[in-house]
């Protein structure tokens, strides 16, 4: 029995069970390129399914990667029939919430109404640490609800282009944190009961009911995120000490959250020894350093899919370039046979 | 010596010595955790190893050591929690034992034998009211003025167990206080960098000449 793990993401790309795929790692290692590549390959391999690529990084790059504008509403990628993209915009989402609050408070008057009209709610809540992660989480909950109720657009798989490591870990902790919070809230409501609804004002809002619904949704998400058949995390790194150390930290944290992680994409590899002609001393020296860490990655993560991606001659922007680059997620990059590809990237404006 | 008095003295000594017995038993409980020692030893060994290898040159070994350290730290935390729980259980048990073997019997004995005469004092040394207090105990404070309790006839007045115990415990706690203050670690005097008189003079402002009208 061959126990070696394939150095590609073929099994993930062809997976019919995965609903949530997170792509994350240190800043600047190629998360956006990798998440776009994974999304493109999955959409190409499974044309009958719908895929959604969401950016949860406040410094969005999806629009730049595809060379077209995406917003807070999912929009299909030009040239793809089953891949849509979305960039969650915290300020726009908070403005929507503020407008809803204004609409609900039409009968009110005085300073509170003036504050709402002035957008005070969105300004106040927009600066709360962790608000980006909370809004991304709300988006996840909305999708789960849509799936169950059959409302809105249905997506078979959602791929997350995440923020750098710390923010993502905070996002992934949200189900557990919220779950504990809501449990405490449940204890309070069992004692105070309907009295709590009076705090919600004269709008007859069933606070207890809404909190119970939120709790059940959060539990569903927690179950799905810890199910290895439904959720996986793809780590992206480069072959340097700091990036590897952060990847190791990320892997250990994810394991502690019971989250499946079995793939690592190592980006920006030089493969300088295979260059035609004489490569520069700097590239040779850098490649030597990268190789040293590559060998160690193979040893350290022997049961992971380690995918080695080349550093291209140009920027990987636009659908065509991303398609060319993403093929190496399925078939491992051969520095001799595939070297021409990295020079064939089209110039993007 | 009266057997009751011996018993009461024994209880008194036991009550004073009990904290020592308690701390000895707790120390024995903590010392019996050999697993904790082993884990700490393992942790120190790996930390020493980490200091000697280069993270960049031997990244695999360094990372594997880090993983082992994480596991050991977690085990140490769990072991600590178990130890704290064990110590708390021991404390709770000892508290119950003290209550059952010392506090309750001693209290019953003190109440039951409160008027047991310990020794006699010649009458006339202390005011009558105090003599009544010595003989009948604290109740005399309330009942004496109502003539319900009276000082006995005779040339001597007895000192009851209640009052004698009160005096003994007061003396013992005073001696304990003196011992603690003598053996407490000394607090170093604050360092004085400037001459206090010079510092005082720095703030003296020369009077401004008043304008002459």
TrEMBL record, chain A:
CDD domains: ArsA
Cell location: Cytoplasm; Endoplasmic reticulum; Golgi apparatus
Domain ArsA/GET3 Anion-transporting ATPase-like: start-end pairs: 18-329
The entry's keywords: ATP-binding, Cytoplasm, Endoplasmic reticulum, Golgi apparatus, Hydrolase, Metal-binding, Nucleotide-binding, Transport, Zinc
Any GO CC annotation of this UniProt entry: GET complex
Residue sites binding Zn(2+) per the record: 280, 283
GO biological process, one term: tail-anchored membrane protein insertion into ER membrane
GO molecular function: ATP binding; ATP hydrolysis activity; metal ion binding
InterPro entries according to UniProt: ArsA/GET3_ATPase-like, ATPase_ArsA/GET3, ATPase_ArsA/GET3_euk, P-loop_NTPase
Pfam families from the UniProt entry: ArsA_ATPase (PF02374)
Source superkingdom: Eukaryota
Keyword Endoplasmic reticulum: yes
Residues holding ATP: 26-33, 240, 267
Positions of the catalytic residues: 57
Keyword Transport attributed: yes
Annotated Gene3D superfamilies: P-loop containing nucleotide triphosphate hydrolases
Recorded family membership: Belongs to the arsA ATPase family.
Subunit structure: Homodimer. Component of the Golgi to ER traffic (GET) complex, which is composed of GET1, GET2 and GET3. Within the complex, GET1 and GET2 form a heterotetramer which is stabilized by phosphatidylinositol binding and which binds to the GET3 homodimer. Interacts with the chloride channel protein GEF1.
Functional summary from the UniProt entry: ATPase required for the post-translational delivery of tail-anchored (TA) proteins to the endoplasmic reticulum. Recognizes and selectively binds the transmembrane domain of TA proteins in the cytosol. This complex then targets to the endoplasmic reticulum by membrane-bound receptors GET1 and GET2, where the tail-anchored protein is released for insertion. This process is regulated by ATP binding and hydrolysis. ATP binding drives the homodimer towards the closed dimer state, facilitating recognition of newly synthesized TA membrane proteins. ATP hydrolysis is required for insertion.
Protein name (record): WGS project CCBQ000000000 data, contig 00106
Originating organism: Kluyveromyces dobzhanskii CBS 2104
Lineage, broadest ranks: Eukaryota, Fungi, Dikarya, Ascomycota, Saccharomycotina
UniProtKB/TrEMBL annotation, chain B:
InterPro entries cross-referenced by the UniProt entry: Get1 (IPR028945), Helix_hairpin_bin_sf (IPR029012)
Alphabetized UniProt keyword annotations: Coiled coil, Endoplasmic reticulum, Membrane, Signal, Transmembrane, Transmembrane helix, Transport
GO biological process: tail-anchored membrane protein insertion into ER membrane
Taxonomic superkingdom: Eukaryota
Annotated localization: Endoplasmic reticulum membrane
GO cellular component terms given for this protein: endoplasmic reticulum membrane; GET complex
Recorded coiled-coil stretches: 36-93
Pfam entry (one): CHD5
Any one GO molecular-function label of the UniProt entry: protein-membrane adaptor activity
PANTHER family xrefs: GUIDED ENTRY OF TAIL-ANCHORED PROTEINS FACTOR 1 (PTHR42650:SF1), TAIL-ANCHORED PROTEIN INSERTION RECEPTOR WRB (PTHR42650)
Name the UniProt record assigns to this protein: WGS project CCBQ000000000 data, contig 00058
UniProt source species: Kluyveromyces dobzhanskii CBS 2104
């Amino acid at each position: 029995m061959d126990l070696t793990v394939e150095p590609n993401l073929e099994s993930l790309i062809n997976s019919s069970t995965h609903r949530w795929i997170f792509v994350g790692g240190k800043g600047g290692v190629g998360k956006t390129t990798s998440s776009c590549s994974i999304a493109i390959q999955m959409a190409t391999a499974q044309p009958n399914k719908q895929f959604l690529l969401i950016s949860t990084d406040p410094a969005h790059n999806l629009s730049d990667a595809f060379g077209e504008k995406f917003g807070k509403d999912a929009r299909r990628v030009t040239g793809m029939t089953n891949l849509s993209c979305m960039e969650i915009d915290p300020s726009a989402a908070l403005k929507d919430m503020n407008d809803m609050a204004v609409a609900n408070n039409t009968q009110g008057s005085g300073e509170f109404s003036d504050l709402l009209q002035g957008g005070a709610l969105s300004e106040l809540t927009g600066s709360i640490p962790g608000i980006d992660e909370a809004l991304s989480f709300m988006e996840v909950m909305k999708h789960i609800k849509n799936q169950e109720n059959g409302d809105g657009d249905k997506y078979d798989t959602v791929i997350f282009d995440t923020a750098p490591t710390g923010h993502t870990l905070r996002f992934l902790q949200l189900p557990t944190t919220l779950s504990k919070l809501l449990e405490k809230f449940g204890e309070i409501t069992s004692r105070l009961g309907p009295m709590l609804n009076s705090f919600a004002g004269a709008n007859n809002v069933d606070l207890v009911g809404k909190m119970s619904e939120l709790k059940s949704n959060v539990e569903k998400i927690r179950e799905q995120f810890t199910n290895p058949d439904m959720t996986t995390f793809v780590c992206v790194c480069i072959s340097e000490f700091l990036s590897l150390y952060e990847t190791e930290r990320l892997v250990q944290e994810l394991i502690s959250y019971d989250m499946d992680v079995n793939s690592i994409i190592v980006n920006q590899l030089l493969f300088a020894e295979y260059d035609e002609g004489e490569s520069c001393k700097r590239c040779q020296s850098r490649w030597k350093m990268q190789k040293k860490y590559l060998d160690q990655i193979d040893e350290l993560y022997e049961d992971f899919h380690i995918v080695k991606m080349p550093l291209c001659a140009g920027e990987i922007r636009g659908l065509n370039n991303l398609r060319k680059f993403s093929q190496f997620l399925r078939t491992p990059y051969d520095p001799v046979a595939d070297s021409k590809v990295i020079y064939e990237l089209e110039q993007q404006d | 010596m009266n057997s009751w008095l011996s018993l009461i003295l024994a209880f008194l000594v036991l009550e004073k010595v009990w904290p020592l017995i308690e701390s000895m038993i707790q120390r024995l409980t903590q010392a019996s955790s050999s697993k904790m020692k082993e884990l700490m030893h393992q942790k120190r060994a790996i930390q020493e190893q980490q200091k000697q290898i280069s993270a960049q040159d031997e990244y695999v070994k360094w990372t594997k050591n880090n993983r082992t350290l994480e596991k050991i730290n977690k085990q140490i935390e769990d072991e600590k929690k178990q130890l704290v729980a064990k110590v708390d259980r021991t404390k709770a048990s000892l508290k119950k034992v003290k209550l059952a073997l010392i506090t309750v019997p001693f209290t019953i004995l003190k109440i039951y034998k409160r008027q047991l005469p310990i020794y006699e004092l010649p009458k006339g040394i202390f005011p009558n009211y105090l003599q009544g207090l010595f003989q009948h105990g604290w109740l005399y404070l309330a009942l004496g003025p109502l003539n319900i309790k009276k000082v006995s006839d005779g040339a001597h007045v007895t000192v009851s167990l209640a009052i004698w115990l009160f005096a003994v415990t007061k003396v013992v706690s005073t001696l304990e206080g003196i011992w603690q203050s003598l053996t407490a670690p000394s607090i170093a005097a604050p360092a004085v960098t400037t001459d206090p008189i010079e510092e005082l003079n720095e703030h003296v402002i020369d009077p401004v000449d008043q304008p002459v009208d």
